[in-house]
Amino acid sequence: MEENKNKNNKKVEILEKNEINENITFYKVKNKENNILYSIKKIVLRNESEEELEEIKNEIKILSKINSEYTIKYINSFVKNNSFHIVTEYCEDLTLRKLIEEFKSANKLISQNLIYHIIKEICLCLKELYDNNIRHIDLNPDNIFLTNNKKVKIGCFGILKLLNNYNDFIMENNNYYNYMAPEIIKGEKANNKVDIWSLGCIIYELCKLDYCFNCSNIISLHNKIINEFHDKINLKFYECELQKLIDMLLKKNQKDRPNIDEVYKLVIKYCDSGEEKKFVGREEKNKIKIILEIKKTDINKDIYFLDNTDYEDENGNKHFHDSLKELNESNVKLYIKNKKYRYQKCFRFAETGEYYIKLKFYFSLKDCSNMFYNCNCIKSINLSKFHTKKVNNMSHMFYNCDNLSNINLSNFNTENVSDMSYMFSHCYNLQNIDLSSFNTKNVINMSNMFQSCDKLINLDLSLFDTKNVIDMSNLFSYCNSLNNIDLSSFSTENVKNMGGMFYMCENLTSLNLSSFNTQNVENMNDMFCHCENLKQINLLSFNTIKVITMEKLFYNCNNLIDINLSSFKTENVENINRMFFGCKNLEIVDLSNFSFQKVNNCFQTFFNCNKLKKVILNKRIDISIIQKEFKENNIDPEIIY
Description:
By secondary structure, this protein is of the alpha/beta class.
């Protein structure tokens, strides 16, 4: 055993020494006077100023005053031999990272009750920190400990990122970027909601045993965090309330996220009322024919199925059927109860087995939104006799039916439908959709309608009447296999939002948008982002007089050589941030009608455009903005007026 002395000349005995790398060493030490164990982090200094070191010391002094059962207590800090030392209480218990790895290795999921318990404990810790005006900043499974008596303690606050060597370590080895909130990546002003975002990522990881956002490189990871949605957790094993909680915490806009008090109240509600969800294997329920009868007296009420263990009747009386082994027409229990989400749970049984579903309605249905939401084990649906004449809402109707490969909508009457947003979103295995019977004359919202339909190769929308559509944002986003789409019949004169419309359509090689009338469009963010095989595009008919933002418009369009935007008028555009980012084969770009009078952000507009040879500009613009971009990206194209 080695002996050493700290700043106060108290003798300590080094029990364990763990050299992480040449710059960082962890010690487990014992105070020989009172036998109390401590941890010491030793970090070699690298060009840190005295002001930075003093700032860390002051922060640690503040943290040391917090005497909480939920935090690793900070004891002291000092500089010795060109190294910064931080002394904390010793915690030898399990980190959440190790807990996740253990369950992953055993091919098991962490119980819902334990997850709720961990969330509740983290909330209590964050509440205490915020009451003391302290933000954690670096919340992740590596610095959250689970003690033997299931108490949670949090340590390793983000103040240590001011030390260069430690900052490099956490970013390279502790997956720091995987928990970074969008506002931090974008360099926006942040608040306590960054910890709320990190908590959402941690809860997701506890459920999925994998990162919420994971990529092989930092640029792709940043793009995912800012622009993409997280996947769903296993709703066969966890209650949907846990998914809702994750969705709330991972709102892209920090203003939309709940505060810590709101999170805590929700967790208490779910934790105290929730029970472990019992998973029933497919082998126990095999292709059972269910007839769901909805009568006139049930209009405007929400209809739910319970699973095969118990059910509740209309009077609220509970009945238990522990011996029940299968669902069939005689023992399926139907009950009426007011709930927030119409029709959602009436199809819940489809999540745990393969079923043939026959619906029998005795009244005219008006709202089909969320009808098959998350029924992710249905493979085929025949709705050819489904009467939809009076239906006005089909939003999220088949959302996340990720095993659905065949759907018959041949007799769908959609003449009164106004909302088709997210209708087929996340139907990953849907290979063909016949929408020839669709009447879309009254549709206003088509946002995200085909989002993440990964296997769609062709899509015939030639009969679509879109003259009243206002929102087409993300309409085809993540349709990675789509290689042919004819939009010549599309009327877009009333559309205001085209943001992300063709986002990640990686197989599209050409787009004919000559018929598009964009006179009212305000948002073109990400419109062609990641269309990596797009070789030609004609946008000369585009009227952009009302467009406010063109951020990442052609981001990573690797195969575009010539982009002619001579018709673009940008008097109202405020943001062209990363507009041509990653267009590595781009040689000529025509911006002859561009104006930068309102542009306040053109960060990395031409990043990685290394082959850019010629830029055509308007003589009246301030060329210094463009020249600054060229200089920062080491390119020197010919400028023509």
